[in-house]
Design a protein that fits this description.
The protein has 186 residues and is mainly beta. It has a single domain, classed as Jelly Rolls. It is built from three helices and 13 strands, in the order ββββαβββββββββαα. The strands form three sheets. Strands 1-2-10-7-12-5 form a six-stranded antiparallel sheet, with no helix packed on it. Strands 9-8-11-6-13 form a five-stranded antiparallel sheet, with no helix packed on it. A two-stranded antiparallel sheet has the order 3-4. A hairpin with a 7-residue loop joins strand 1 and strand 2. The longest helix is centred in the C-terminal third of the chain and has 6 residues.
Length: 186
């Protein structure tokens, strides 16, 4: 059985892991995370998950941009287990050479791609298939007051979103990045 393969990314410490699908007449096995392959600078060689959640969304949904406040060290694992999404990871680390840059990754059940989003980066996604189901692994417990939501339509970030119809009320009220920087939240 083959293992995970780590691919390069434009954003430092963002991990893109490809997992071969091992299948036979019974079905398949897919490795989602293996601490032996992950970059120790990102997760100290190990992620102790505090939460593992599953999210299902329908076509036309845009979620994000979400990240933890700067005083919370949060690492996220994201895997698409059914359907297809366009994942956008935004570097929101002020001292990073790729600060305010974003990268796009297509996650779908059939491409067996998993990403590990480093601390300080935000992420958002749009659903491209009829529906999509994601699994998130997070090393922090949920605390609404520790969450930041950045406007996914912020012109400064220059993200070209497709056609979407559905956003949460929290996402609709999100502030632009400049306002969050001015308030010293990033």
């Amino acid at each position: 059985m083959g293992g995970l393969k780590l691919e390069a990314s434009e954003i430092g410490e963002l991990e893109i892991l490809k997992s071969p699908l091992n299948s036979d007449v019974r079905g398949f096995l897919r490795v989602i995370y293996d601490r032996g392959i992950s970059n120790p600078r990102v997760v100290n060689g190990n992620i102790l998950f505090q939460r593992i959640i599953m999210v299902n969304s329908k076509r036309g949904t845009l979620r994000g941009i979400h990240k933890a406040r700067k005083d919370v060290h949060e690492v996220k694992l994201v895997a698409c287990v059914s359907g297809k999404i366009r994942e956008i990871v935004v570097d929101l680390r002020p001292k990073s050479p790729t600060f305010k840059k974003h990268t796009e990754i297509i996650l779908e059940a059939k491409n067996n791609c998993v990403i590990i989003i480093p601390n300080g980066c935000g992420h958002a996604y749009e659903v491209l298939s009829k529906e999509a189901t994601l699994i998130y692994g997070l090393n922090t417990s949920y605390s609404p007051e520790k969450e930041l939501i950045i406007n996914a339509l912020d012109p400064e970030l220059n993200i070209d979103w497709g056609d979407f119809k559905f956003r949460s009320s929290k996402d609709l009220l999100a502030e632009n990045l400049a306002s969050l920087i001015e308030d010293n939240l990033i």
